[in-house]
Amino acid sequence: MAEENLYPWVLNVAQTRLCEHHTIEHEPIASIDLMERAGERCAHEIAMLPWHDNKFFIFCGTGNNGGDGLVIARHLAEAFEWLENPIHVVICESENPHYSQEMTTNLERWKEMCAKHKHLTWSMLDPDKPVIADKEDTIVDAVFGIGLQRKVEGRLASAIAMMNASDAFTIAIDMPSGLYADQPTPEDNPIVLANMTLTIQYPKRAFFTPEGQPFYGEVRVMNIDMFPPKEVECRCEYLTRKALAPMVRIADAFAHKGTFGHGLLISGSAAMPGATILAATAAMRGGIGKLTVHSAGAVTRILPTVLPEAILHTDDDEQKVSRLKWEGLPSSINAVALGPGLGTDKATVNVIKDVLDSCQSPLILDADALNMLADNKTWLAYLPAYSILTPHFKEFERLAGPAANHFERIEQAKAFAERYQVVLILKGHNTLISLPDGMQFFNTTGNSGMATAGSGDTLTGLLLALLAQGYTPVETALMGVYIHGLAGDIYIRDNAPQSLIASDLPKLFGKALNELTSKTDIF
Questions:
Q1: 421-435 burial, b if ≥16 CB within 10 A, otherwise e?
Q2: Sequence ranges of the domains in the chain
Q3: Which site among 3, 133, 332, 443 is 20 to 30 Å from 318 CA-CA?
């Protein structure tokens, strides 16, 4: 997702319309001129793609989204005038059509252009005469905008079916037609299968849900300089490099290992030693000054062979974590993470309860530590404020109960973080970070290659490194998730996503951090 935007907000339909009306009134700008700006920006984005002599088929509804499509058609005609690319507009009426004023005006403008140029054409949708677009052609979907809240039927369903029947590259404007912006879309609703979506000013919540993922393709945010009124309070944003880069602290020349903090990782068992190795390596690559690892004897015995930098604190038990001797730990420890590879043996459960009783500072809990919380939900009330929890969907379901869909899960995560005053990192595509004050953030880095065993362990180690360095729990969560995902994105620039394994990620944290703080425009 292209990320440079003055307001990296995720707004609902009502809030978006308030921003539009506010911009029209206070810029000031006429509604049709704001439409012109949006269509021109989208056309510019389309024209910058690697086209040659492709034909364009632009499906336009009778509302303002259709008006956007007609503006796009005009500007594409101007951009490709020297090539004379055929551009055909299809007007898609419902059985009882209502034309917006802006749509009507732009349709007349298009008809005037068609009268002057034979390669520009238009027609009314005829369900019995399908529009035939070849694989090399481009379809622009401008039938519905963000306000759709009903099932698509009749002639407009035929328009969507026509677009989906083609192998042409399909670009949706603002939303793929048929997809709801703020709520689950009925499973039987026809929806455009877009390869790319050019969304206007603010990405829609549907773009961050598994249910919407098959339809929107690559999302690019078109900044058309809409600005919000004071009454629009954004409680959800998407993470951008522009917002996160200023958080990164540059160490002075006289910094030493103590400057970068000392973390304690409670992790691992004889059955899962790799979780500790991954998390500990990630912590060291994440910039921590010193790392102490408390684990079973079977784990600490092999750890120096792969990570000699770690300080060992060996459990009395060879197979599992059974007891934590606080008196033997360094006094300089200032951040604690627990969970990866621990298992849920009764003795280990008692260790986790002891940590919760003893620690007053925010903790990082992952994997089996979360499973123990799910089995002992009364412990949630004893978590130090702003502790960081990192569940995937199934772990979160054990903690908070099932959700009917991802829209409900987003609200569930918000309520959970507020109730227990924790920073909740709900892992997955577009990982969701929910804060104790009700704010939420969707991540914009990462890829399918990161859906691999041990990936979560490396995130835990990176979070421990950041927390130990003195970043706040909120900064730790936002930066950690973004850098972790960016490392995965750097990997797939030269490799297939399927080949990524968890141990690849810490090796790329340094490059990811460099990109985060780079002054070069990267999206």
A1: ebbbbbbbbbbbbbb
A2: 13-234, 244-248+256-517
A3: 332
Q: Which fold has domain 13-234?
A: Rossmann fold (3.40.50)
Residue in 243, 247, 262, 279 with CA at minimum distance from that of residue 463 = 279
pTM of the full structure: 0.95
Distance CA 322, CA 299 (A): 13
Angle among Cα 429, 435, 437 to the nearest 5 degrees reads 145
**Structure confidence at residue 6 (pLDDT):** 59
Q: Taking a C-beta distance cutoff of 8 angstroms, is the pair 366, 339 a contact? A: yes
Question: Any idea how long the chain is?
Answer: 523
As assigned by CATH, the class of the 244-248+256-517 domain is alpha beta
Residue 445 pLDDT exceeds 60:
yes
State the DSSP string of 45-62. Answer: HHHTSS-SS--EEEEE-S
**Over residues 389-404, mean pLDDT:** 98
Task: With a cut of 70, say whether residue 64 has pLDDT above it.
Answer: yes
* CB distance 453 to 275 below 8 Å: no
Residues 430, 481: Cα–Cα separation, whole Å: 10
Question: Distance (Å, rounded) from C-alpha 468 to C-alpha 264?
Answer: 9
Q: What pairs with residue 142 in β-bridges?
A: 60
Tell me whether the CATH fold assigned to 13-234 matches the one assigned to 244-248+256-517: no
- Treating both helix axes as pointing N-terminal to C-terminal, what angle do 31-47 and 101-116 enclose, rounded to 10 degrees? 50
Q: How far apart are CA 412 and CA 426, in angstroms?
A: 11
* pLDDT of 523 strictly over 60: no
